[in-house]
Amino acid sequence: MYKRFKPTCFLLLFFLAMFFASAQKIAIKTEFVDNGSVYKNPNHTNPIIQFEEYDKCVVTSFVGKYTYKVKFNGVEGYVRDRFLLVNEAMMDLYFDYEEAQKLKAIKSRGKSEKDLEIIEQLKQDSINEANEKRKQEEALKAEQLRLTNIKLQKKQDSLAKINAEEKQLEKIRLENLKIQRQQDSIAKVKAEAAKAEKLRLEQLKQKRIADSIAKVRAEEKRLEKIRLENLKIQRQKDSITKVKAEAAKAEKLRLEQLKQKRIADSIAKVRAEEKRLEKIRLENLKIQRQKDSISKVKAEAAKAEKLRLEQLKQKRIADSIAKVRAEEKRLEKIRLENLKIQRQKDSIAKVKAEASKAEKLRLEQLKQKRIADSIAKVRAEEKRLEKIRLENLKIQRQKDSITKVKAEAAKAEKLRLEQLKQKCIADSIAKVRAEEKRLEKIRLENLKIQRQKDSIAKVKAKAAKAEKLRLEQLKQKRIADSIAKVRAEEKRLEKIRLENLKIQRQKDSIAKVKAEAAKAEKLRLEQLKQKRIADSITKAKQATANQAQQQDAINRAEQIEKRKQLIAAAAEKQRLEILEKQRIADSISNAQSNLEIKASEERRNTCLYYINEYDNFNNQQLIITEKYFINDMLSIELLREGNASKIHFNLDENLGCADYVPSRRSSVRVTLENGRTVVFYHSGSLDCNLFSLKANLSQGDIYQLKKSPISKIILKGTNGEVTLSSFSYKSFFIDKLKCIE
Questions:
Q1: Does some domain include residue 470?
Q2: Residue 728 in domain
Q3: Which of 228, 373, 378, 594 has its CA 20 to 30 A from that of 325?
Q4: Cα separation of 335 and 256, whole Å?
Q5: Sheet of strand 710-717: strand arrangement
Q6: Domain end: 110, 145, 174, which one?
Q7: What residues contact residue 555 under an 8 Å CB cut-off, 6+ apart?
Q8: Is the Cβ–Cβ distance between 305 and 289 less than 8 Å?
Q9: What residues make up the domain containing 618?
Q10: How many helices (H) and strands (E) does the chain have?
């Protein structure tokens, strides 16, 4: 009886165990091993949520056909086992499901003792199979762990390699920055030295002017004292007024001639400046005519530029003539004021002469007879000394003319050396830019060949990267060599300038020595004159002694007055020369500024290409513009391959890699001043060399970018993002998108 019910009891206990096991709430924690979807139905239709690799989930049951029921982010659904990390508890669910299915099958056929034995055998087989499968799962898990470790090791090696390359590039950048800072320091030291030299010369000049003014004022005080002492004697003279009138007339004539000469010199300088500007314009026009084949547009631009320069030329001529006329009016006003003062002085002198005429006549009649012989001798001596003085004055003027000619020659030589220096610098910069273009052309040709190659992209990308680094280093070396040559040329020109300055100083010293010698000679003649007058007075009668002394004092006063006028004329001449030099410097500065503005406008209105040719291999037009820097850190290239337009953003800052994977895709967000925003996503391969984003450029993007200048740009890489809001070329898209149309 017991044997009959034993299988039935065992089967009942088994079903009770299965019931209680299923009644318990199953919640097995695991994770996904690949990207996929959770489905609403077990037959994998109607996806309800997506998951990614390494996302966590909870398994609640096994429903057959390699499908588990899971709970993910609050949603329940069905997933195949290949998307899950299968653990031991999940295998138990699988075996329990298989046992239940087998028992159902046996139950449907009937419950005999033989069937129960078969069940026992199946259970044992299931246990053995489960153990075997568990071993396989453990081996698979160990293999997965090994592969994961290998993958992590490779990733760590790649990161180490990338970090090493970044350190190398950072080292190169820091070395270049160090060189640049050294160059800036040298330039700053040179500028400070030049500034200090200029300040020293200015201070020396001011000191000399102050000394001259102090001497003039001391001389004026002394002359004023003599004038007051001799005023009584002066009133007794009548012929001196006439002599002074003649001298004033001669001085007026001399000032008028000097004025005419200065006006003529100013007009000659203006015309010379016009000729030089015209020559520069013709050279620029010649260079302009040698440009590319867009002759009609260039002709129109040249015509407009010619008209603008002609108008500028006419304006400068008008300004120069206006300045000359203003200077003429100012000098005429000064002349009239001096004439008015002179007339007032003459009127006062005339009144005083009339008042003292009677006294003078009486004294003159009394002394005339006694001093006639002495006065004759004194006047003869005065005429001889006056003749000597005029000859010395003539020699001094010749020396002054020679000094002026030498100064003009030195100035012209300095200007020539400055122009030669500028030309050498411009030639060196042109050579550097030509070399850059040649290297960039080689790089683009290599890039063109690279695009035509087969699927070994990764190896060739590394080779291209190494080649690019080599070319960049070569380019930096050549630029450094060119800069060194430019600096050597600058040093040579500076040495020549210093030698010329030394020669000029020697000439100035010689001129100064000659001037001192002339001054000493003049003093000697003055002393000789005084001695001869004293001898003449000694030979004359005692009664004529006072008259001779008075005449001597008058002569000295006249000499001092004339010397004072010469000093004032020299100071006025120096002031006018300084004003003229300043005007010429301003004209040159304005011309250079206009040339720089013209060059900037020409660069903005001209399309500059690295490549603009037909690609016979791909049967399409290939256009690549130069890199345009819109910021100290950011440059942009525009490309066109057939009908497809592209854009490259290059940032001199490490933002990680430029990645194309949708979940972490790199981007550039351009915000315009009208509030519109255009977003570009990286469409090239993974690039971890600084930050270089390559994106497609649609017609809609082109339309939006042409409507407004740039306001802000946000660049996003794998390691962060940067926002730029300061730009030197905000209208880049407005000006340059036409270059790839």
A1: no
A2: yes
A3: 594
A4: 9
A5: 677-681, 667-672, 710-717, 720-724
A6: 110
A7: 382, 529
A8: no
A9: 608-739
A10: 9, 16
**pLDDT tens digit string along 462-506?**
767 777 787 777 777 777 776 777 677 777 777 777 877 777 777
CA distances, 540 to each of 365, 383, 532, 537, 728 (Å): 18, 19, 12, 5, 90
Average pLDDT score, the chain: 78
Residue with tokens 């989930």: 57
With contact defined as beta carbons under 8 Å apart, do 712 and 675 qualify? no
Q: Which helix (H) or strand (E) holds 610?
A: strand 609-615
Of 5, 7, 18, 9, the closest CA to residue 102 belongs to: 18
> Which amino acid is residue 37, in one-letter code?
S
The answer to whether position 621 is within a domain reads yes
**Does residue 2 carry a pLDDT above 50?**
no
Reduce the DSSP state of residue 1 to 3 states and report it: coil
User: pLDDT confidence of 109, banded at 50, 70, 90?
Assistant: low
Q: From CA 386, how far away is CA 562, in angstroms rounded?
A: 13
Condensed to tens digits (0 to 9), the pLDDT of residues 215-244 reads 878 887 888 888 888 787 777 776 666 767
- Report how far residue 670's alpha carbon sits from residue 667's, in angstroms, rounded to the nearest whole number: 10
Strands (E), 56-144: 56-64, 67-72, 75-80
Question: Beta partners for 615?
Answer: 620
Structure tokens of 33?
């091993």
Structure tokens at 227: 């004038």
CA 189 to chain centre: 19
Residue 52's CATH number: 2.30.30.40
| Type of residue numbered 59 | V
Specify the amino acid at residue 299.
A
Whole-number Å distance between alpha carbons of 526 and 522: 6
- Structural domain tally of the chain? 2
Q: What are phi and psi of 708, to 5 degrees?
A: -155, 150
Domain boundary among 91, 110, 129: 110
CB-neighbour burial class of residue 412 (10 A; exposed 0-12, middle 13-18, buried 19+): exposed
Q: Which CATH number does the domain housing residue 723 bear?
A: 2.60.40
Q: Is the pLDDT of residue 1 over 50?
A: no
- Residue 712 φ/ψ, nearest 5 degrees: -155, 150
Give yes or no for a contact between 715 and 665, defined as CB atoms under 8 angstroms apart: no
**Whether residue 69 has pLDDT greater than 90:** yes
Most confident of 108-117, 239-248, 363-372: 363-372
Residue with the bigger pLDDT between 48 and 122: it is: 48
Helical H segments across 236-294, by residue range = 239-289
| Tokens encoding 371 | 């001093």
Tokens found for residue 397: 């003027």
